[in-house]
Amino acid sequence: MNLAIRDIRHGLFRFVLTCFGLGLLMTVVLAMIGIYNGLVADALAVVKAPAADVWVVEAGTQGPFAEASSIPADTRDAVARMPGVAEAGAITFQTIEAAHAGRTLRLYVIGFEPGRPGGPQRIAEGRGFGSSHFELIADRKTGLVIGDRIRLGRDRFTVVGLVENAMNSGGDPAVYVTLADAIALQTALDPAAARVQAARGAGGARLPTVAAVIAVLEPGADVALLTATVRQWKHLSALSQAEQENLLLASVVDRARRQIGLFLAILLSVSAVVIALIIYTMTMEKLKQIATLKLIGAPDRTIIGLIVQQALILGASGLGIGLALILLVKDNFPRRVVLEPFNALVLTGIILVVCIVASGLGVRAAMKVDPATALGG
Amino acid sequence: MTRGDVLVTVQGVAKHYGSGETRVDALRAVDLQVRAGEVIALLGPSGSGKTTLLNIIGCILAPSAGRVELDGDPVFDGKWLRSDLRRLRLDKIGFIFQAHNLLPFLTAEENVSVVLDLAGWPAAKGRARARELLDYLEVGHRASVKPALLSGGEAQRVAIARALANRPRIILADEPTAALDSGRAQLVMDLLRKLATEQEACIIAVTHDEKIFDRFDRLIHLRDGRLVDS
Question: Where are the transmembrane segments (chain A) (predicted)?
């Protein structure tokens, strides 16, 4: 006879409510885990999107994500000619705000050369660029749809394709334009005084610049050798893909990541205390019944089983409700909430340990109960 | 073991709490023997030691001095672990409480069969025995009902069924009729007497209920921890 199940059935409504409350807490825990993962995934999305092997950036900078980087656009030709390089493409990044349909969109504009590395890996809807100007491929989170027209700088762009999960480390959704349009946009967004001076011809002809040149290497080519070679050029520096990812995590998202990590730790501690309190209270309410069980001869394992099983059922139900809720609402968060099966597995392990430890308080109280308290009405 | 055999022997049992000036003697050199088939009452004012004596016989409380034998086995002789005493209670002693103390999350039948489940009986056999006892005590029709929906008399009969489930030979009752009206109290006492006779068990009850004194074979009076007469 399973006393834990019988007791739960007896007070089912209350137990379900308790599980639901715990489930809400688990939802918050899972949301924080998802936001934490999302922050990392978002930050890396823009670095991983071009599928590059080497990033060539301005010397003395850790660009183009951690620091601003500006190199001549023709650097691409020099990099493309280097031994071991299969393909090279120039790329620009800039964040702008644009009005559309009565609202202001904050967009991360990525300029790339069609047919060269730097563009989106997969277009979810629509097509790639069919023309070299005024076409735009947007992330779905921008809210733009195929055929929408939006003004960026002085020009109007038409949305021809949609991609998913393309954004910068700040969560701003990305839009892709051609490199030529991106460079024109950079100029259009220069300060007015600089534009006037350029129009007067002061300062000489201005060469187009890009944020970085990315290179895809031939199979078997040595990344370290290529980066070392590039670094010999005084005005350039090079980073491997792994270095770029580590740099981004270490410098750009590290503080936010640690902040969320700490908050997550606090949240897990609060959950542990709440579970412990619930189980302790549930046990304290049953002390007379536990005394009766002891008096009629129930061994300690029966009483421990009653408490631990209820704690585990409570934890498992709370976790199940939390998982169901977060899966239902995660797409409504303004930033990505990324949950992997591994996260659920780790949290299950943590909740399992928390439940067992938390039930220790209840077990301790139950073990102290004198069976004589069952006598005497 | 046959009818009339000694089931409970209490010899020179004393129990004190504290020491020095704060020492309280709850029991002092109590001698008592109870035989199979006997129904006895422990009487006395509050603090006289009735409950302490009941707890010692029920293996809940160890005496400070003296010897206790239950169904021929000496207990509290230093060889018994707490778990052994619990098993002894499960096998040899049935408890009937003042407020029946049925587990609220079990049905009447489960409240009885839980004892058999703990004793290791197969579930089907335990349920059959529980049903048999409830039928015998005329509450079989309430077997699937939770305690909250039982009347006081029905709950007390279910509690008696639970106390008898594992066929114990020693039944300890703490104010078994306190929650019942006079008529039901007489019925419960008649029932206990019948069970004591049929199952060759002894019944030791703590009571203040004068209306049922005539249902006992012996009235044991305690005062200040001593037996004053019997």
Answer: 12-36, 260-282, 303-329, 341-363
